[in-house]
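Quick one:
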Amino acid sequence: MKELICIVCPQGCRLKVDEERDYDVTGNRCPRGAAYGRAELTHPTRVVTSTVRCTGGAYPRCPVKTSGPIPKSAIFSAMALLDEVTLTAPVRAGQVVVENVMGTGVDFVATRSMCRGTEERGAV
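Output:
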């Protein structure tokens, strides 16, 4: 029996997941908690946030995140991909930075617009 705290909503239900009974979940107050508990033990995923280098911009780094969750086992490899990325300003929020991260169908996208270094900060 594994114990988890559900992170799907602010209630923070204390879940118990019985691996021997086909990942039966108890302690959840909504169906989303049951789905989270089952998924967390069978195929855990995470949304990944980080930064990448940016040349010619108002700041030297641009924040990025995955457009959806990726398998937890792929996080370190996905982060290594970002070490090879250098953006050139201007960058728009939502712009795809790395497509199809680790074959997951999920992209890394910019989460902030980045103007050129000579333009007003924050404007693109």
